[in-house]
Amino acid sequence: MFKPDRRALIAILLYLVWIVYFTVDAYYTEKRHLIEDIDATLLQSAMSIPILLPEGFHHKGMNADSVSAKEDWSNIIRLSQFADIVKLKYLYSMILVDGKTFFTASNGTEEERSTKVNLVTYFEYYDDAPSELHKAFESGEISYVEYRDKWGYFRSVFVPMTSKDGLCYIVAADIDISNIETLLRNSLLKNLFYGALFLLFIIPFQIAYNWRMILANKMLEKTVSERTQELQSKNDETQEILNSSSDIIMLTDGERIDAANTAFHKFFGTTSLAEFDARGLKLSDYLLLYRHNDDKEKHFQPLEWIEKMKNLPDNDRLVTLKSESTGVHSVFRININPAGKRFVVSLTDVTQLTRTSEQYRYLATHDPLTSCFNRNYLEAELADSLARVKRYHSAVSVAMLDIDHFKEFNDNYGHLTGDVVLIGLSDLITISIRSCDLFARWGGEEFVLLLPDSDLESAHNAADKLRLLVAETDFPKAPTRLTISIGVTQLAEDDTIKSIMERVDHALYSAKARGRNRVVSQPKSE
Can you state the percent helix, strand and coil of the chain, rounding each to 5? Predict the structure, then answer.
């Protein structure tokens, strides 16, 4: 009776273990690489949906009447064109209303678009939504899932996002994986079959085994390489779409940047994220909060800038960035869309618009000749001061000054010389008063000085110092020295802007009547 050699049996057993191990390992290695590449494509594609849809598309209060059939068809075409480029089955977004999931946008296959059969339209109820979708709504976490529904067998990503007004919605992407599962399964069965077949060749066992394993690994490597190249091509096409935008677009957790478009690298003077990281600086090191009202720029602390920006009104979401290529500071409006634990951040250059807005704001509050504040701005500040006096009983005074004999000065030396004197007087007083004081042109040669935290006596003394300073100053192009008369009064709790200005004007008139070049104070009781 034939009795197999024990060593041969051990060799065969080891061979079986060996072939099963390497075949199964190759199967899962290929599957893992494919899934990783698929997930990368799904995530980038899903996060492109807010860019493809109209700005502000998702918002609180969305209902079945929010989007017309024509607008919905336009969204279907845009998403379909993008899905065709990256070879995805479906791209879509959803919202949760009363515990039910409704589509807000979706692409359609070529057949669905032509026949209108199974085409998902705006606010259609998602009746067989997978449980992972509801978990994504509840947790706010990015979720990957494989599931079957009436449309097929897919691997999908669900990415929670938040609209500007706080609506939580989901953007999703599906890829058909039925053929991938078949490919992997056939590859596994084929490798196992060839391994079993080799048992017939006991003598050349080692040689055949080694040859088959090398061949199997090469086949799997080729398959993985082909799939990797295909998915990389899709990623490149997605990146190309992002690169076509003139806005700076990036995917970030607040400090680390995981993806960025060409506009980002052009602005920062880099060719890759590795080069950007090599500088040793975080994104917050480049960002400065733009403050148009006080001309001060504030540095952000690490990881705080996203929360700071999210809490600001839309018109104040402005930052300045310095271009590494030009060295010029530019102003950007920042838009932040949450994507799980990360954020899609886009920066739109509004430098020229901001500068124009500042020019208009300056012209609205300043006198065009002397560059000091104008009457409108003074009246607004007077109203605020009155409110403080009534609420906190603080001491605030007002001084009105007038250049003595200025009409005769203009008649003798011309209005152009008079304008130079007005400018010189404004400059002199502006640099001589406290930083908290406000100096404004009331009209003609009359100016008003608002003095916070000053009672009538201290305001009188401050005004007299200015009077003496003007009398001792030689103004350019003025052939003679000038003097000024000043009226001073203190704000009372029952005052109005009209009563204040009438009282201080009366005090100025008294100063002129008493011989000019003097200060006259008038309390409210007079």
Answer: 50, 20, 30
